[in-house]
Amino acid sequence: MALFTLSKKLPLSRTYPRFFFTLLLRPVSSHSLQTLSDAFPRTRLHKPRFSILRHLSTQALYDSFELIRCRDDTCDPLKLGLPELLEQLEGLSSEAEVMAVLDGFGAEPNQDLVYWAIWGLREDWELAYWVFNWGEKWGCNSEKTRGLVIWVLGKCNKFGVAWSLIRELHRSSLDTRRAMLIMIDRYTAANDPCKAIKTFHIMEKFRISPDEEAFYTLLSAMCKHGNVEDAEELMFQNKKLFPLEIEGFNIILNGWSNIAPDVFEAKRIWREMSKCCIAPNATTYTLMISCFSRFGNLFDSLRLYDEMKKRGWVPGLEVYNSLIYVLTRENCLTEALKILEKIKEMGLQLDSASFNCMIRPLCEAKKLEEARTILAVMIAENLSPTTETYHAFLEGDSYEETFEVLKHMKKAGFGPNGDTFLLVLANLFKLDQPENALKIWAEMKQFEVVPGSAHYKVLIGGLTKFGWLVKARELYAEMRSNGFLEDPKLKKLLKDPVDGNNGERERGMRLGKTNVRSHHGKSNVMKWKRLGNRSRKNPSLGETP
Fold first, then answer.
1. How big is the CA angle at 204 (ends 198 and 208), to the nearest 5 degrees?
2. CA separation for the pair 220, 238 (Å, rounded)
3. Closest by alpha carbon to 336, among 323, 346, 352?
4. How far apart are CA 32 and CA 41, in angstroms?
5. Residue 333: is its pLDDT beyond 80?
6. 252: enclosing H helix or E strand
7. Which of 81, 207, 253, 272 is deepest in the core (most CB within 10 A)?
8. Closest Cα to residue 126, out of 145, 105, 152?
9. DSSP string spanning 142-185?
10. In this structure, what is the dihedral angle of CA atoms 292, 295, 297, 303, given to the nearest 10 degrees?
């Protein structure tokens, strides 16, 4: 029976040895690896540069971060003496002091030195801007460096300073196209898509043509930062200037598939494409299969995979990773392992994401024995665990196991980072362990992680649900004293605590049948009648997109 004609869940095979393997908590037996690893010929694989577990499908289209990324692999920031320079610059409060330190540093002014110094100071916009001015004085600022300082200013919400710099570049007859595209991205990141759209429209004032590439960059930036609905409307509103093409639809589909996942919206976009007589390409199929797999729709994932091949499109590793994920999630681990074998037979290079796509759903289903076995195979294939791998094992662990995983993450050089502690705190509250959440909070400093507003909100919100109001109020006061803005929702929780049995209420929330849709900060910039609204009533997951 062919694998990809399966439409029913297959039973989980138990032919491999049942044993606990974990790089994180206990030593490994080479004998334990034998049965599963024998299924795959030993091929030395390179360590992947990144993992895409959170985004199971394609790369970000028109990624604005490419506008500032330095691709000169010959440059070594350590050889430039960056750590020593940044240490000397730290705490300086005037441009004159910065200039004096840079002039006396002893290094020859060059593009690499300025670029990496600005990158190292990206959290302090004033220091970064003064370093940029020093580079201007010596004439060693490249277009990438100018783009980077604009990005830093936008990141720190210093848009006025950024516009002043752009006007200076324009008066000097320097190209400002890159800077304008970066401003579009930074406005959307600051949840201000209106100004991002306005920036796109005023490009002509700087003698820049707002062409199709710039338009797609705007759509992609809006989707990347959660304004998928507004980006879709903008695409349709401008169809006379920029005719509807597959590239635009793929950007919107990527938003509904990976940024603000919504299978109903993704299927609606698929139907809109059909209405506009636009045929899907390989990227479209990859995104749609990713979306179906994310929501556990095995039948439609396999159906689109078959359709993709029949139409002559060659599935890439992202497609196979999506299939691995949904098969594992739907209790078809045997078939997921067969896909790993198929990937190698096709000459594609496995990466950590392929194994993470099995480990994550196994951990979510509390099948830790199988997850550790897959981790053993991953190690045997010379692939190192990634941050996503560790995060998967953190879900559902006890406090003691969680702390051990965090120590192993630090030892392996994979964090833990701020996202790790957000995951841990949320998980401990799900396990009804507010006291352990406070213990982890106290340990964050040991791991050199500075709490952000999101950490305070998770911790304070969790404590109020368990009635720990005194401690929650202390932490809220600490949050405000650290310069974070007031949060009306938290203030209301602290002022009007929830009545009744808080622990029982928390368990009821976890076990409830509700399916709350979240669009990750969609703005209400544009109010419009949704296209295809009728077609979205009472959809089923098995429906053809």
1. 115
2. 15
3. 323
4. 17
5. yes
6. helix 246-254
7. 253
8. 152
9. -HHHHHHHHHHHHHTT-HHHHHHHHHHHHHTT---HHHHHHHHH
10. 10
Average pLDDT on 483-511 reads 61
Written as six digits, the tokens of 142 are 């490249």
**Res 22 pLDDT > 80:** no
Whether residue 193 has a cis bond before it, omega within 30° of 0:
no
A 10 A CB-CB count for 435 gives 11
For 191-234, the DSSP string reads: T-HHHHHHHHHGGGGGT----HHHHHHHHHHHHHTT-HHHHHHH
Q: What is the mean pLDDT of residues 92-110?
A: 89
Check if the beta carbon of residue 409 is closer than 8 Å to that of residue 394: no
On whether the CB atoms of residues 348 and 319 are closer than 8 A, the answer is no
Which is more confident, 514 or 497?
497
Tokens describing residue 173:
């007859």
In terms of Cβ atoms closer than 10 Å to its own Cβ (0-12, 13-18, 19+), residue 133 is middle
pLDDT interval class at 48 (50, 70, 90): very low
The two structure tokens encoding residue 464: 């109020």
Q: What is the rounded (10 degree) CA torsion for 261, 265, 267, 273?
A: -120
Burial 466-488 (b: 16+ CB within 10 A, else e): bbbeeebbebbeebeeeebeebe
3-class DSSP assignment, residue 89 = helix
DSSP state of 19: -
Q: Please report the pLDDT score of residue 64 as a whole number.
A: 58
Other C-beta atoms within 10 Å of 7: how many? 10
